[in-house]
Fold:
Amino acid sequence: MNALPSPDTRSDTLCAVDPLQVLVYADSLSWGIVPGTRQRLPWPVRWPGRLELALNGAIAKGQRPVRILEDCLNGRRTVWDDPFKPGRNGIQGLAQRIEMHSPLALVILMLGSNDFQSMHPHHAWHAAQGIGALLDTIRGAPIEPGMPVPPVLVLVPPPITTPRGPLAPKFAGGEHKCVGLAQAFQEVCRARGRDCFDTGTVIHSSEVDGVHLDAADHIALGDALVPVVNALLVPMRA
Structure:
């Protein structure tokens, strides 16, 4: 059996250069659940996969590729517990995830939709305060000495529309609770000097269930994020 060529002799740039790691910390909207089912969209269609493929598609020689780490848990809230399923509180274990995956070039947060499930009384302000707590947790994560605290890009989930199908009872009233989410997120991010992108400007919730994203919206979001993420990574990719 022939030995694999050493990284410094490979012509493939993606194999020869240590990639920049980007952590996507999110919920089922990013996990890629197919609306109305319990199935999952394939990786190249899900927006994190689409984004990684695009960022690495025209990579220049010597430029660092990007590796996106998907940490997307169905039902994850910002800082609240799910009374029916354990482990859905987004702040629990977040600092350790940052420590575990360091060094990170960027963290992308896309949470908030599950804060509006019917068992919670929360509105946009509450979800935004949850995002603020997550940002503070990332800043204070116990990373190794000398490793950088990663920048964070907060994605505002698209507004919930009328919940339909099996999700209707779980998200009843969510379309009213989420009103003003983009503005609330932007205020929290501005106060902490973090970047914020309103996904509702480029995509919308599926008409099938009113909450999740259709395949076309995953693709549209991945494409829309390419210049945004690339601009944040440019200083580190050389």
Notes: The CA atoms of residues 54 and 226 lie 7 Å apart. Confidence is low (pLDDT under 50) at residues 1-11. Residues 13-237 form a domain with the Rossmann fold fold (CATH 3.40.50.1110).
